[in-house]
Amino acid sequence: MKQESIRAEMVEMTYREAVKQALRDAIKRDERVFLMGEDVGRYGGCYAVSHGLFAEFGPERIRDTPLSESGFTGAGIGAAMAGMRPIVELMTVNFTLLALDQILNTAATVRHMSGNQFGVPLVIRMATGAGRQLAAQHSHSLEGWYAHIPGIKVLAPATLEDARGMLWTALQDPDPVLIFENVMLYNMTGKLAADAGPVDIDKAAIRRPGRDISLITYGGSLWKTLEAATALAADNIEAEVIDLRSLRPLDDATIMASVAKTRHAVIVDEGWRSGSLAAEVGMRIVEQAFWSLDAPIGRVCSEEVPIPYPRHLENAAIPQAPKIVAAAKAALARS
Amino acid sequence: MPSLGADMEAGTLVEWLVKPGDRVKRGDVVAVVETQKGAIEIETFQSGQIEQILVDLKSKVPVGTPLARIRTEGEEKPAAIAAAPPPAVPTAPPAAPAVAHAAPPVVQAPGPPPPITPPPPLAPATAARARVSPAARRLAEERGIDLSTVTGSGPDGAITFADVERRIGEAAAPPEKKRGGLDLAAMRLAIAAAMARSKREIPHYYLEHQVEITACEQWLAEKNATLPPDNRLLLGALAIKAVALAARRFPAFNGFYRDNKFEPAPAVHVGVAVAIRGGGLAAPALHDADRLPLDELMSGMRDLVQRTRAGRIRGSEMSDPTITISSLGERGVEVLYGIIYPPQVAIVGFGKAVVRPWVVDGAIGPRSVITITLSGDHRAPDGHAGALFLAEIGKLLQEPDKL
């Protein structure tokens, strides 16, 4: 798939546009697919992801909902159980808390509770992350929480290719899949093959190979981590950058193979440190690759504070490239 | 402090080759002890981790003194209770706790085994545990690198994989170790003491047996024709093997006379008398000589002679011989009557091979003949047994291909 895309014509676009193409493609390809959420229709989505789709596909396929996350998420679950392939957009991850009972208690459990009589082939998309000065109530990174829940899959597309390709694969999954789109990525531009299509959703990707240290990250932090890797290269440190892509299930094999090679690991996760996904990844490394480790595992996470509104404080609260560089050098005992 | 000879009463510790924290395997050389016979390398009889060095450099201590404490795999770490030292056990004598709970000393001293109970108070851990990364630890284990010899460069000075790799590189080209060398005057005193004691205490009897060794010479010539010079076999190797095999069949000559009785040894470790330039003499053991194939026995013999002359004998080689062989054939001597090295009970002497008129199948012909002697301890086996033993050696030498 990837090799084909290299040959294809490359088109410059934003991450937002890549997500929109994925939505349009899915709606066109499968008549059971529809998008549902707050302001996704006439307004075009609060991050303008679905802008223009209402005009193109109409209110049957692009459905505006009342401000009731629990209600329309539950409606999505019911539609999925009844044979549709709904895509529910929750505006940001903090609003998913209002739908948490539907997600955790219903969507994730129905297959189990029904003795496999029903499944919930539902996709829930949402924006996540800080950096846009949306203050403490709209800047969370709670994907690590969701990765805690058996019965669902949790994806974090960080590249145009994944933004374009993960949705269709997620829709083919017989169980609920949550897709976390980092708010800082929507405006990111890059080149994507004109014929880009579905991608796998269960493998981590090595975004930059290296021999000295494994920097393990996902989502919006990927680009900060790649920036850090470039800075480290100037100091003759070759960092390998792993994009987890799927937070549940985690691709242990890719992580362990990398750590076995580099013997050093720093995990970059915009979630708060305590009980974070970074903690889970770190513990798995200890469990599975302990004898390969050459230094304590490092973590760069968000400061354990409500994310501040002022830009300088917000930037200070979340992972940034200099912190990643410092953590990598600490693990390597370099200054 | 191991006994490196029946006459040894004390030894001076001149070099430690291990440090606390080092892992040692049974047979590893751990220290060098200066005795009257020169500097002897001491091997450990116990695998485990060196916990504490008990004897300082340059200290002269009596035989039987524990030199170091080794913690074996199963033993608990003292660190757990080191933090809060419990009150001393009132019944324990002041010096006893230091060793009472430990593994046997480096070399098991004679006497009763150390008491097992009760768990005595432990000395507080002396040094903080070294930081070693898991990857470094595993690499060191795989490659047999002693982590105490590695300098850490990682976070908080931890030893990292790269540090161990560097150490492996260094270990590949080890610096020549300096040894005290041989003190011939002290060695002479030791020889004097041992030989005087032997002649004073041991009622020697002497037997002599002339053995035709034409078969050996022919066999050696054929064998050596195909071997590179460095691997060629010498008659001495056949002699050692023949004596070792005979000693196995006649266990009364293989062992020690101690406390008014003979103790047969479970294995045959043949002491090989080696002359040392300047007037020294030592007879270190060629271990399990009865079981070594001839080529291994030959290379073992070369190695032993070389190290003996360089003053690098190991402790077990000094203390283990169960029977001794001496040969002066190369010096042109036809017959040699040895003095038994106590507490052994026999020494076998080999003279020079000479061509003599010999009766074979009723006809006289020239034959290579060697004179083998046995000096036996009459307190242990009698001359009758000695004659059979000596005859057995002669018979064995008739069929060199079976040695």
Question: Short summary of the structure?
Answer:
The complex is a heterodimer of chains A (335) and B (403). By secondary structure, chain A is of the alpha/beta class.
CATH architecture of the largest domain in chain B: 2-Layer Sandwich
Structural class of chain A: alpha/beta
Q: Describe the biggest sheet of chain A?
A: 7 strands, mixed
State the total count of DSSP E strands of chain A.
14
Shape descriptor of chain A: globular
The side-by-side strand order for the widest beta sheet of chain A comes to 3-2-4-5-7-6-12
Percentage of residues in strands of chain A: 15-25%
Low-confidence stretches of chain A: none
Write the layout of secondary structure elements.
The complex is a heterodimer of chains A (335) and B (403).
Chain A lengths: L1 H6 L2 E5 H15 L3 E5 L15 H5 L4 E3 L4 H13 L3 E8 H4 L3 H8 L2 H4 L9 E6 L14 H4 L6 E3 L4 H12 L5 E6 L6 E5 L11 E4 L4 E5 L3 H14 L4 E5 L2 E3 L3 H11 L2 E8 L4 H13 L8 E5 L8 H7 L3 H11 L4
Chain B lengths: L9 E7 L6 E2 L4 E7 L2 E6 L4 E6 L6 E3 L5 E4 L7 H4 L14 H4 L33 H10 L17 H12 L11 H18 L2 E9 L1 H12 L9 H15 L5 E4 L2 E4 L5 E3 L1 E3 L3 E3 L2 E2 L7 H16 L3 E2 H5 L3 E5 L18 E5 L3 E7 L2 E15 L5 H14 L7
Parallel strand pairs in B: 4-15, 11-16, 16-17
Antiparallel strand pairs in B: 1-3, 1-6, 2-5, 3-4, 5-7, 8-19, 9-10, 11-14, 12-13, 17-19, 18-19
Any descriptors?
heterodimer; A: 335 residues; alpha/beta; Rossmann fold; seven-stranded mixed sheet; five-stranded mixed sheet; 14 helices; 14 strands; globular; B: 403 residues; alpha+beta; OB fold (Dihydrolipoamide Acetyltransferase, E2P); Dihydrolipoamide Transferase; Chloramphenicol Acetyltransferase; 10 helices; 27% helix
Task: Describe this structure as you would to a colleague.
- The complex is a heterodimer of chains A (335) and B (403).
- Chain A has 335 residues and is of the alpha/beta class.
- Chain A contains 14 helices and 14 strands.
- In chain A, the strands form three sheets. In chain A, strands 3-2-4-5-7-6-12 form a seven-stranded mixed sheet, sandwiched between helices. Chain A has a five-stranded mixed sheet with strand order 9-11-10-13-14, sandwiched between helices.
- In chain A, helix 10 links the parallel strand 10 (213-217) and strand 11 (239-243).
- The mean pLDDT of chain A is 96.
- Chain B is of the alpha+beta class.
- Chain B has three domains: 1-125, RNA polymerase II/Efflux pump adaptor protein, barrel-sandwich hybrid domain (OB fold (Dihydrolipoamide Acetyltransferase, E2P), Beta Barrel); 130-177, Dihydrolipoamide Transferase; 184-402, 2-Layer Sandwich (Chloramphenicol Acetyltransferase).
- In chain B, 27% of the residues lie in helices and 24% in strands.
- In chain B, strands 8, 11, 14, 16, 17, 18 and 19 form a seven-stranded mixed sheet that branches.
- Mean pLDDT of chain B is 81; it is low at 79-110, 117-127 and 175-180.
- The A-B interface holds A 263, 290-296, 330-331, 333 and B 133-138, 153-155, 158, 160-162.
